[in-house]
Structures are given as C-alpha cells and as structure tokens.
Amino acid sequence: MNIGNCIRWAVFTLLAAILVPTVALASDALEEKVVVYSTHGESMLEVVADAFEKETGVKVEFINLKGELADRVRAEKANPQSDVMYGAPSSVYQELKAEDLFAPCTPSWADKIQPIFKDKDGYWYGTIQTPVLMFYNSEMMSKDEAPKDWWDLADPKYKDTMVFRNALSSSARATYSSLLQQFEKKGELKEGWKFLKAVDANTKRYYGSGSLQFQAVGRKEAAISFAVLNSIIDNKIKNKMPLEIIDATSGSPVITDGIAVIKGAKHPNAAQAFVEFAGGAKVQSMLANQFNRMPTLPDAIASSPAWMGEIKFRVMDVDWGALASKQSEWMQHWDSEIKDSGKDAK
Fold this sequence. Notes:
By secondary structure, the chain is an alpha/beta fold.
C-alpha cells in the first residue's frame, strides 16, 4: 500500500470510529461474503447478488424467508447468522429496530430519499415503494360514476360491483389495516369496522390470487377493485385491460420494502457495502426495468419505466410503526367477523 493509500485508510478508520458508519465499496476493506435474509423472489435476488459480486468480488449467500423473515432475525439475536435484511414492509423494520436488532448505516444516497421511505436514525432504508390504488374497468363505468375515495366503497350503489383480494395478500392486509387506522386515529375504531362490513356487503367476491382478481375485472364480473400499482399497469399495458386508476382523495397506502444491517453481523463491512449497492440508484433502476419495482430514489425513477414518473397519486397518512403491532389481530378479526358477513349491512 503506497503512502497516499495509507493516509486515506487512516482517515477512513478515524472517521469510522467517531461517526455512524458511512458505506464504501472498497474491496480491500470487505469480507469474502455477505449473508442476506430476504422476502424478495429468488430471480430478483440472483440479479442483485450477481451484480454485487461482480462489483465487489464479495459472494452473496441469500435465503428467501418470506413471512418467516422477522421471526428468524429475532430468534438469532444472540448469535446473528445473517448480515443484511432485505425486503419486508417498513412496519416490520420499525418493530425490529425497537427490539435493537439493527445497526445504523449511512449510505451515500441516504439524504436523497424522502423521510417517509427511511428511518430518521439511519437504521433502515426503503428500496422499493409499492402504492396500493383503487381502479375500475372503464368499459363498465365512467370516471364520474367511479368512486372518488375509499369511503365511497361503502355506498350501497356499488353493491356487487367490487372484487378484492382476501387478507392473505400482504397488500390487502396493509390496505384494510390502513383504512381502519384512519378511524382509530379519531377514536372511532368501531365505526371503522362498520365501514368494512358495509364494504363487504358491496363486495361480490374475494380472491386469493391476484391474477384471478384481475381476470374477474377483465371479464366484467365486477368493475371496481384495488391492487398494487405495478400490477394495475402490467394488466393495463401488457394485457390491454381497460383499467383506470383512482387517485383517492384521502390518499392511498404506500408500502415500503426496506433494507438494513443486522446488529452483530459477522460480515459488517460487506453488509454495509451491500446496503449501499442494493439501495443505490443503479440497482433500483435495474429492478424497475427488469421486475417493475418502483424505486424510492428520485435518481432511479428518472431512468425507470416512464409510468413510474408520470403517474401521480396522493399518499395516505399511515403510521406504519403503530400499525405493525395491531395488523395481525385486526386481520384475524376481519377474516373471522367481517369477510362475507356484511351482506345484510344497512
């Protein structure tokens, strides 16, 4: 190592000792591998892992845990077996941060992300935003006839015009819970349950599959539904369905998939480098173009499919941290007491 490199390394070491770690991709400072626990699909993980290894020489070992991810990280708190948590909604990250399971990290792009997409203390960052919006079949109703807000879905005039996903869908769980929270914030949770029961009375059918849900709307079995924005666009463009998006007056829930360094990670330098890489504009744009995932970084949106920058929507005010501790209980109640039980609601 020459004198210049020695000086740079000394400065880096000094700063690392007194500041929240700032991520770098310098290969000589990284461990040989990084272990990533994720909820993302394997095809997407392979693309990110291959690109990271090509960039840094660090091998990525990823494990797809889906709904078991948070419990696995908790169970390994005393002896972490992973270095990075990649995927899962922000509500889960807020829960695990409160349980002291993450280490702070400051990637170079941290200041470019809006506050709603990151932890204020630097413990996790959003890499994908997933808006959940209402939509309708424009061959079945006009814009004037379509609902303008979520609360319109309880109007009896929409009876048998709606199909939705059941609560096994993560986007549906987040949506039903977000709507309930709007009532809870006003101390009117009971009214929230009445609202969902009235919506149920108007709902023709629930689907466990997103493809079946869209097929029902496409076949004109029902005009109105809601789904993640990228699925609506996929069906509108690729399947040529006559779908129109509703920008709800009260805003729409936006689910944020995150990334974080595990506290006590065995490969901490590689872990922080992975966060820097996977959350950066280059990878966010790559996932937008290859997998239709909407970036959180404005720089990435600029080089993503055009619709990601063109479609404007209002964001619902959701306290995802507060929602995290209540969502399971609320959705159990929805499944047992609300679903298919409000058909006689007045």
